[in-house]
Design brief:
The chain is mainly α. Helices cover 46% and strands 4% of the residues. It has one domain: Alpha Horseshoe (Serine Threonine Protein Phosphatase 5, Tetratricopeptide repeat). Strands 1-5 form a two-stranded antiparallel ribbon.
Length: 474
C-alpha cells in the first residue's frame, strides 16, 4: 500500500511540473515591447509631467509666480514638495524606459532607426536631472532588473563629459542617424513626426545649450563655432522640439485638470510683474490676468515666499492667464526651441565665444519668443524698452530668455544659478536663511532605498544641502 501511495505522489508531482509553465504564463502580457509605443510614451510622459513640474515648482524657484497656500516649497523648504516639486521619479522612470528603446535598437537591426533619438533623449533627460540635483545615479542606473537596485552616484562632470555621458550621447545620436541606411521609418515620434533631420537639429541645439552650461569649466569656443558655422540647429519656430497640448482632457495641460482651487493657488510674482512692467511688455496679458480688485485692468504681483498664515486676498493679485487652464490648446510641452537657441548664441557672441552679430541673434530670439507666445511684437520694443544696449546687454539677453521660458520654470532657475540673471528677490518668509537655493535636494526615498550611496552623496553636499553648488556652478 505504501508503494502505491508513493507512486501516486510521484505522478502528481510530475503532472503538476509538466503543466506549471503553461499555467503560470500570462498570455496577455507581451514578452517584447514595440519601441514605437515606448518612444511615444517617453516623450509624452516626460513632456507632460515636466511641463507641470516646471510650471508649478520650477516657476516658484524661478520667481515667475507665487504660491498663496501650501507654499513651503515657495519658502524654500524644498524637502516638502506640494503640488509639484518632486521631479526625481519622472526622470528615472523615463530614463529607464528610454534605455529599453536604446537596448532594442542595438539588439535588433529592425529597430536601428531608434538608436539616434534614444541617445538624444537620454542626453536631454540626463542633463536635466543632473542640472537640478548635481551628482546622481547614472552609469549604474536605469538597469535595476539586470544589474543593481542600489546604483552609485556619478559626479556631474562625468555625467557631462565622460564616454556614455551627455555630450557623447549627443554625438553618437547624430552619428547613428547620419549612418542609418534602412528603410524602416521612425514611428511614435510626437516631436518631429519621424523627421530624422529634426532630431539632428534638436541635438545640435542641445549641444549649444549644454556647452554654454559648462562654459565656466571648459573651453567651448571652438565647438560652438563649429556648430554655428554648420548652421544645422533649430533656427525657426517651425523646427521647435515641442508637442501640443489640447483644450480638453486627457491631453490638456495638467493645471487645467486640477480643481480650481489648485489653479488659483498661483499668482503673478512681484519679480515678473516688475520686469514685464518696466519693459512695457504686452506678454503680461497672455501669461497673467488683471487682478480683480483693480480699477484700470492692471496687474499686481506678490513677493514670493509669503507666510500663508498671514493671509492675503486673492482678488488683490493677478491670477495665471487663461492659456494655462481654459485655452491650453495654445500651449506646448517645450523641449527645445529656436528662441532659446538664439538667446544662447547671443550670449556666446556677447562673451566672445563665437564670431556672430549679437544684436541680430538677440533680436531674432525676442521676435521668435513673441511669436511662440502668440503676442504681437510692439514696433518699438527692440529699439526702446528692450533694446540690447539699453542697460547691460548680457542681462538683457538672459532676462529675455527667462521670460520666454515661462512654461519651463526649472530652466529659468537653472540659468539664474549659472548667470545671476535676472536679479531674483529675497523672498518674504524664507525657510532657507534668505538664500535662494542652488540645487534640489535628493528625495527621502533615496536615503531609505539606496542608503550607502545616498549617504556618500549627502556628505558631499554638506548633508544634502540646497545651498551647495553643482559642478558647473562651483
Amino acid at each position: 500500500m505504501k508503494h502505491i501511495y508513493s507512486i501516486l505522489i510521484l505522478l502528481l508531482v510530475v503532472g503538476c511540473t509538466k503543466e506549471f509553465e503553461e499555467i503560470n504564463t500570462n498570455t496577455n502580457d507581451p514578452v517584447t515591447v514595440q519601441p514605437s509605443l515606448l518612444l511615444r510614451q517617453v516623450i509624452y510622459d516626460y513632456g507632460e509631467q515636466m511641463s507641470y513640474e516646471g510650471f508649478t515648482a520650477g516657476n516658484l524657484l524661478g520667481q515667475y509666480s507665487t504660491a498663496l497656500d501650501f507654499n513651503l516649497f515657495d519658502r524654500h523648504d524644498l524637502k516638502s514638495p506640494q503640488l509639484g516639486g518632486n521631479p526625481w521619479p519622472i526622470f528615472y522612470q523615463n530614463l529607464r524606459d528610454n534605455e529599453i528603446i536604446l537596448n532594442l535598437s542595438q539588439e535588433n537591426a529592425a529597430y536601428a532607426v531608434y538608436e539616434g533619438p534614444a541617445r538624444i533623449m537620454k542626453a536631454f533627460m540626463s542633463a536635466g536631472l543632473t542640472d537640478l540635483f548635481g551628482d546622481v545615479p547614472y552609469s549604474e542606473a536605469f538597469q535595476g532588473d539586470t544589474e543593481t537596485v542600489t546604483p552609485t552616484y556619478d559626479k556631474q562632470e562625468s555625467i557631462y563629459m565622460d564616454e556614455g555621458g551627455v555630450f557623447d550621447n549627443l554625438d553618437k545620436g547624430i552619428l547613428a542617424i547620419q549612418n542609418y541606411t534602412g528603410t524602416i521609418a521612425l514611428e511614435g515620434d510626437i516631436l518631429f513626426n519621424g523627421d530624422l533631420d529634426g532630431w539632428i537639429r534638436f541635438a545640435n541645439s542641445l549641444k549649444i545649450k549644454y556647452l554654454m552650461r559648462v562654459s565656466s569649466k571648459i573651453d567651448v569656443a571652438s565647438q560652438l563655432q563649429t556648430i554655428v558655422t554648420d548652421g544645422n540647429f533649430i533656427d525657426d519656430n517651425s523646427e521647435n522640439a515641442i508637442f501640443n497640448f489640447t483644450d480638453g482632457e486627457p491631453n490638456s495641460f495638467r493645471l487645467a485638470q486640477l480643481r480650481v482651487g489648485d489653479f488659483n493657488n498661483y499668482v503673478l510674482s512681484e519679480t515678473m510683474d516688475e520686469i514685464l512692467t518696466n519693459l512695457n511688455d504686452p506678454r503680461i496679458a497672455r501669461l497673467y490676468q488683471p487682478f480683480a480688485n483693480g480699477t484700470d485692468g492692471g496687474y499686481n504681483g506678490l513677493l514670493n515666499g509669503i507666510d500663508a498664515s498671514a493671509g492675503v486676498s486673492l482678488a488683490d493679485y493677478s491670477l495665471l492667464g487663461t492659456i494655462f487652464r481654459e485655452n491650453t490648446g495654445l500651449l506646448d510641452a517645450n523641449f527645445m526651441t529656436s528662441m532659446e537657441t538664439h538667446f544662447l548664441l547671443a550670449e556666446a557672441s556677447e562673451k566672445g565665444l563665437i564670431v556672430a552679430d549679437t544684436e541680430t541673434l538677440y533680436n531674432t530670439g525676442v521676435t521668435q519668443a513673441f511669436e511662440y507666445w502668440q503676442v504681437a511684437l510692439p514696433t518699438d520694443y527692440l529699439t526702446v524698452d528692450a533694446a540690447l544696449n539699453n542697460g547691460d546687454p548680457l542681462e538683457n539677453i538672459i532676462t529675455q530668455k527667462w521670460i520666454a521660458n515661462s512654461i519651463n520654470g526649472y530652466e529659468g532657475w537653472i540659468e539664474y544659478r549659472r548667470t545671476g540673471f535676472p536679479q531674483l528677490k529675497t523672498i518674504s518668509a524664507s525657510l532657507n536663511n534668505d538664500l535662494i537655493p542652488i540645487r534640489m535636494p535628493y528625495p527621502a526615498e533615496e536615503e531609505a532605498l539606496n542608503n550607502a550611496n545616498y549617504t556618500q552623496a549627502s556628505n558631499n553636499t554638506e548633508g544634502n544641502s540646497i545651498n551647495v553648488a553643482v559642478w558647473w556652478d562651483e
